[in-house]
Automatic annotation (TrEMBL):
<dbReference type="GO" id="GO:0097193">
    <property type="term" value="P:intrinsic apoptotic signaling pathway"/>
</dbReference>
<dbReference type="GO" id="GO:0000302">
    <property type="term" value="P:response to reactive oxygen species"/>
</dbReference>
<keyword id="KW-0999">Mitochondrion inner membrane</keyword>
<comment type="similarity">
    <text>Belongs to the COA8 family.</text>
</comment>
<dbReference type="GO" id="GO:0050821">
    <property type="term" value="P:protein stabilization"/>
</dbReference>
<dbReference type="InterPro" id="IPR018796">
    <property type="entry name" value="COA8"/>
</dbReference>
<keyword id="KW-0472">Membrane</keyword>
<dbReference type="GO" id="GO:0033617">
    <property type="term" value="P:mitochondrial respiratory chain complex IV assembly"/>
</dbReference>
<dbReference type="GO" id="GO:0005743">
    <property type="term" value="C:mitochondrial inner membrane"/>
</dbReference>
<keyword id="KW-0496">Mitochondrion</keyword>
<protein>
    <submittedName>
        <fullName>Cytochrome c oxidase assembly factor 8</fullName>
    </submittedName>
</protein>
<keyword id="KW-0809">Transit peptide</keyword>
<dbReference type="Pfam" id="PF10231">
    <property type="entry name" value="COA8"/>
</dbReference>
Amino acid sequence: MAVAAAAAAVRAGLRVRRVCSGTCRCFSRAGVGAGLLAAERGCEPESRASNFCPPAHSCNDWIGPPDRQSNLRPIVFHIPKNESPLGRRLREFRQETQVWNQQFWASQNVSFRKGKEEFIYSRLKAKGLEMKDETGQKVTLSAEEMADFYKDFLSKNFKKHMCYNREWYKRNFTITFLMGQVAFERAWRMLGWKKTKVEN
């Protein structure tokens, strides 16, 4: 049964990272930000792992394939049976950070692609060219011409990226601090358990 469940997970395009023991939640979607572009198109976001649920005996975090919009790998975080309040705080903050990160990069990538298409269209129009040539192939611009777009895009989004970086470092510091607290809590519990066992 365990082998069959693991094989099903592999077929779903997921890989596992071992961390601790307990149960897992269902993999309900490929990424929170996946619906942004799909919403603009008036359709539901596609998901390769929309109905995936880790095996009940799993004691791992499950990592999915890259999201179609954010290009980030979504994670289903393992929930231990005897999760402490501190452990729960860490897990929920990591989940919330993942949502925030997925949404930022999904939105940013949509803006980048849209801006790129508009830039190419305007440059080709100025040259009197169409988006596709006689054979139906897309007409592209030179690397030098595209460099103007990249420079302009980075300049326009400089403040946004700075704010993102500051928030990212703050969140990572908080996660690292909480992980240290959880590790200390587990070590303290283990020492207490061993001490009780020796006394008995």
